[in-house]
């Protein structure tokens, strides 16, 4: 079997008849058949091929095939957004009266699915602490069907011990779902540890340039058959153009992640040595509370550095206002570095106590470290810290 980087580049859809070296975009809603018998066989599932782009398309098929090779999965689906991938990884496997266990500190919209949507069908949830798999036993009920996790978490970078979580899920016969967006398959492959379903927001590092939305679900073939009913008939299809774009981006995922991660590691080191920073979180920096686990299950530390400035909420906002190059945006996983202040934006609807329970303090800032030169990234951070300095200089008179 070819290596990760080679699969990412050499896995391609069948070419059309014009000898294109780069796979074309198949911008077509439907496909044609040779004759009535061929069409019958296609609809009966007796012949291979595409019928209608809500079901499949050569560009989305190429993307699925690539991500399956990267994650070590059997089959998968693309969706229009990451959230549609999360939703379709969960809902096909639940019915009224079921219960799920989810690690606290899941993505904001995943929290909304658990708290606002599933209760309409009388599906209940229990949150457990991501760092402490031992405590999850208490959450198991007779009707528990699924374990829903995300590692590293957004924005607190809490890790789940995938091996322990896989054993827990197996022991209690739970479907184990991992949102692997923050790691990408280059850094971590949850299926190795027993995950049944892996979902992604391809909007982030998979596209990597902040251009398109997309989602992907991969896992065992039998599970994908269950998901197929939902995907085909509720229609969250990914555009062939977006699939083409993301598939092209995956050709450079490994080199981009190498640079995102080496830049992020340098930023973490800079913060660690700076008196204006109260705390820095980066999985591959020794100060991370789960550093050993991060080294074990993550090839690299990822592209996000979360840090807390001295001076809390007001300082964090003042710091962001002094940033000159780095973008102020809510996205992440872009070639451009981006800062976000979770407590006044993405997590502002939570109460202070809820924010603290998921590790979000008022002075916390999430930095998605981009691919600019490291000296320019650190230079921008440094000048903004200097301009908003709190720690008064000790002057000797
Ligand atoms: C962004 C994100 C999502 C949602 O993805 P969209 O493409 O924005 O719908 C889900 N999970 C995680 C961890 C994310 O970062």
What layout of secondary structure does this protein have?
Elements (H helix, E strand, L loop, with lengths): L3 H7 L25 H8 L14 H14 L3 E5 L2 H9 L8 E5 L4 H10 L6 E5 L15 E7 L11 H10 L3 E5 L4 H4 L9 E5 L13 E5 L1 H14 L5 H11 L2 H20 L4 E5 L9 H7 L6 E6 L2 H11 L4 E2 L9 E3 L11 H6 L6 E5 L5 H14 L10
Parallel strand pairs: 2-3, 2-4, 4-5, 5-6, 10-11
Antiparallel strand pairs: 1-7, 6-7, 8-9, 9-12, 11-12
The structure holds pyridoxal-5'-phosphate.
Structure notes:
The protein is an alpha/beta fold. It folds into 2 domains: 4-250, Aspartate Aminotransferase, domain 2 (3-Layer(aba) Sandwich), CATH 3.40.640.10; 253-396, Alpha-Beta Complex (Aspartate Aminotransferase, domain 1), CATH 3.90.1150.10. The chain is 37% helix and 15% strand. It is built from 14 helices and 12 strands. The strands form 2 sheets. Strands 1-7-6-5-4-2-3 form a 7-stranded mixed sheet, sandwiched between helices. A 5-stranded mixed sheet has the order 8-9-12-11-10. Strand 4, helix 6 (162-171) and strand 5 form a beta-alpha-beta unit. The longest helix has 20 residues, at 253-272. The structure holds pyridoxal-5'-phosphate. Residues 81-83, 86, 107, 150, 154, 179, 181-182, 201, 203-204, 213, 215 line the site of pyridoxal-5'-phosphate.
């Amino acid at each position: 079997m070819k290596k990760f980087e080679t699969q990412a580049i050499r896995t391609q859809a069948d070419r059309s008849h014009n000898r294109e070296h780069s796979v074309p975009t198949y911008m077509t809603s439907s496909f044609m058949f040779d004759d009535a018998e061929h069409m019958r066989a296609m609809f009966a599932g007796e012949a291979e091929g595409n019928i209608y782009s809500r079901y499949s398309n050569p560009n989305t098929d190429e993307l699925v095939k690539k991500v399956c090779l990267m994650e070590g999965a059997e089959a998968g689906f693309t969706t229009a957004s990451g959230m549609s991938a999360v939703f379709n990884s969960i809902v096909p496997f639940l019915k009224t009266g079921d219960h799920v266990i989810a690690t606290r500190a899941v993505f904001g919209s995943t929290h909304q699915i658990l708290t606002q949507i599933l209760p309409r069908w009388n599906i209940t949830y229990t949150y457990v602490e991501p760092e402490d798999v031992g405590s999850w036993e208490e959450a198991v009920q007779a009707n528990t069907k699924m374990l829903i996790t995300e590692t590293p978490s957004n924005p607190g970078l809490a890790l789940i011990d995938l091996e322990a979580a896989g054993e827990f899920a197996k022991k209690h016969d739970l479907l184990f779902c991992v949102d692997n967006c923050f790691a990408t398959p280059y850094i971590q492959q949850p299926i190795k540890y027993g995950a049944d379903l892996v979902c992604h927001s391809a909007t982030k590092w998979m596209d990597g340039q902040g251009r398109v939305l997309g989602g992907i679900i991969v896992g065992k073939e039998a599970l994908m058959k269950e998901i197929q009913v939902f995907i085909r008939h509720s229609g969250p299809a990914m555009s062939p153009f977006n699939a083409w774009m993301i598939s092209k981006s995956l050709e450079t995922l490994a080199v981009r992640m190498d640079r995102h991660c080496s830049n992020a590691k340098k930023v973490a080191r800079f913060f660690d040595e700076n008196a204006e920073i109260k705390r820095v979180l980066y999985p591959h920096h020794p100060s991370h509370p789960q550093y050993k686990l991060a080294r074990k299950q993550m090839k690299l530390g990822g592209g996000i550095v979360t840090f807390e400035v001295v001076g809390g909420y007001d300082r964090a906002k003042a710091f962001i206002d002094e940033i000159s190059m780095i973008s102020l945006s809510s996205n992440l996983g872009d070639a451009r570095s981006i800062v976000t202040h979770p407590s006044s934006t993405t997590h502002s609807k939570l109460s202070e106590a809820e924010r603290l329970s998921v590790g979000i303090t008022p002075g916390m800032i999430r930095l998605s470290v981009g691919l600019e030169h490291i000296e320019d990234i650190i230079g921008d951070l440094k000048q903004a810290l200097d301009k908003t300095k709190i720690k008064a200089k000790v002057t000797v008179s």
